[in-house]
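User: Predict the complex.
Assistant: Input components as received:
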Amino acid sequence: MADDSSDEEIKVRIGDIPLSYYEDLPIIGYGIDGKAVAKVVEGDALEKHIAKSDDPEWWRTLTDHLNAKKVKITDEMLEVIRKIRQRKSFGSDFDPYRDLEPEAKPQISGFGTDVMPPKRRFVPSKWERIKIGRLARAIEKGWLKPKLEKKEEVFDIWADEDQEEKPAPPKWNLPGNAESYNPPDEYLLNEEEAKEWEEKEPMNRESEYMPKKYPNLRRVPAYENIMKERFERCLDLFLAPRVTRPKINLDPDSLIPDLPDPETFRPFPEILQMKFVGHEHSITHMDFLANGEYIASGDSSGEVKIWESQTGKCLESLKFKKRIYWLAWNPIKPLLAICCGKNVYLKSFECSDKVSIDYAEAPENQLATWEWKDDEVKIKMRKGVRKVIWHGKGDYFATLCKRESTSKKVAAHSLSRFQTQKIFSKQSKGDVKSIAFHTKKPLFFVATEKNIMVYNLKQGVLVKKFKGLENPTHIAIHPSGDHILAACEDCKLLWYDYDLSSTPYKTFLYHKRELTYTHTHKRYPLVATCSLDSTIHIFHAQVYQDYMQNPSIIPLKIIKTDGEPIQCLFHPKQPWIAAVIGKEISLFI
Amino acid sequence: MDDQVEVHFQTDLGEDWQVSESYWINTSSGKTELQDIILQHLNKQANLMLLLNGDIITNSLEEHMRTQGLSTEQKIEIWFSIEIPPPSSLGEIQHDDWISCVQLTSQGCFVSDYGGFLALYNENQEEIIKNQIFSHPIKSIDFNENSNLLIASSKTGDIKIYNFQENSLEESAFSHIKHIEKVTSNPSGSMWAVGTYSGEINLAKINEETANIRDGTKKQRLDKFNIEINQLNLPHTDCITGLKWPSLDLLLTSSTDHSIMAVDLETQSVISSILAPRSIQAFNVFENNIAAGFENGLTQLYDYRNSQKIALLEGKSWVRAISMKDLYIAVGHENGNLRFFDRRSVKSPLHTIEAHQGKVLTTDWLNSIISSGGSDSIVKYHTFS
């Protein structure tokens, strides 16, 4: 029997493309000669019905789409189809049972035979129905539970390894106008620029690509650097580890604390209004008289001047032999303590009312000797005195001699008893940087390089230790007595709450260079810090009696100064601040 | 064609200067054109100051109307007065130390300095008297023309009262109070008010009964009187920076504690009080107006009768001294400038002169002469005639 498929020549050569692609087209494809082969037009349902009723042979007609023709099925073809459907061989001379015995026994269906009885003879089993009914009831009542299949455990070999998804490589920058095949003229390099571009090392070139112009896209050659750039890109991706950083979608402004307007906190010092000019050498220290009437200042040549703070007039001048390190007015009477060399002078001035300290026999002391000369008292220490501070009641004052032995560095003096004594038999190791009296309680603060020690003066014991400092230059006690401010060399202002913690309650890192001084106003809620970065920072610092309420500290103003301020002091009554800058005292209002 | 506006001119110069008619004037007209119209109408010669709603006319009328939102459809009123000419120097006197106080009187100009010197100069700046009355700075002086008594106080608190007769000063009384800042005498010159740094105000008068008696058998011969001092209980807490005694029973005080008080001396009670925004550094009184200068450069005018603000004079440098005369105010500043304002137009100063090399510490005004003293130790005289 010949193979029909080989005889059949398919007219439409459309390959494996589905015929559905041609549904909307009038053609069915292209023939071998390249000409379009028109579709066989089949009529609509009405035409089909008419043809069906008119033509008795209609059911024999089929449409061969691939050859674009109508085919009529002959009787022979029908016979073949019928035989195929009966699963019989359709050739006339082919006998499929030629190897079998001609007389086969008729097959018997039923049990014990290979032939199953037809479905129409099937009678459902009564016992099976009863059994299934039982099982169904047991499932319904929950007596019978399906057995859980034990799943085979699969061992995850990669479980311990980080399976983090690698972040996608960064996208390449999109090409700009310069990379266009037809860039605007201003992007093109002239000869000089092109020469300069070529002479430069590739890494020094401003742009990696030299813009070129082509008449059309067809003329654009293959990009010569594609391999190089692809390789470099792959190398970059390989060598540079990529990490996914979670992007926080936050408004940056919302992170800035909502501070009130500084205008609401007026008055506070803002601008330079007056300078106290007269010292010929750089001023080392100054101090306001308790009522703010006078300022005393001392310079490196040993000159002490008394100024009228209201006008800036120098009223008195006094010369000492050595550099003045520190000055402090007595808080009760106009008596000035001056640190000069190894001596502490207690002196009053005519302009500020004379205070006479009557001569008395001072008890002998190893630490210091008291001497009376004219109207001044000289307390001679064993080593150079660097600081002197008065107690709030005006009777006691403390001095700091840096070169003394550890326990004798800080000494306390009594003005009424003319006595000098070391405060404690044991003091902490390390250099003492600053000292201060508590404003209300009998406490004494000693700032060393790393800590602030608080000693009880009555009991003579260490009661508290504040940590976290780095070379404090000056410590100040807030007038409330519950807060300690430390200006440090590491540009920080540390705010300690006496009752809260031994670590800073707040740290302000606003200055760019080391702080030199900090001071709190006695009347207004103001705090100031000055630093070698030529600025004075003014803060509003309201402290509440209520322990539950935190102090509100708000930066108000940065005052820029002509030079490096080494000291800043608030006026005792007015919201003014005076700063020692070189040979002058500047008063900011 | 330019717009025109109906203008009515007003003045307080007197009947001779009244302009009754209204004029239609081009809005492009400036000060000169407006002045010419007035002077042509009055047939006079003068330099006028023209004000439109308190704003001195310097540019064209159109610009001033635009800034004030005035329309040409409405009638505008321009106020005019004789313009104060720029002050011209009359001379200066050199002292050895900072000048603390100057007072112009009919006898001459009394000057005190920080060296303790008290001097009197006549109108030709010739020295009549110059004595060192204290070894410490003189902070304040006050000469009363009715009693011919002069009070001077030093920084340390000494008070001396001098009798001025025939160009000589004779010390008649002495006392001491701590830290005196200001002194002033009452209109009759029989009592003085003394303000201290601590905020106390004392009333002082010469006590003739407790006078010192010179050694001798006859007790009638008196040398120096004592000064009887009574403290006024006022709620000032800080330095007294201003004291004025405009009438016998009224004392006006200012302090750096931000307060200004009007004190009834009969009842010794505060009749009105003004709380200023800053500490008062300079103070002066003219009629019912008080001028208070602050360290931030501003000067505030108040009416002490009702404690109301009248005007604010702008400035940047510390106000050190204020003097007032009629409608004019002179303000001395830390930077050495002396600025003159017209009370009717305080937006900008009429004139500014660099009076001193340093700070202006005191100023006084008498008739057309203004004197000032500064930290350059010079007393300067200026005139407006």
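Chain B has two domains: 4-82, 88-383.
Let me know if you want any component modeled separately.
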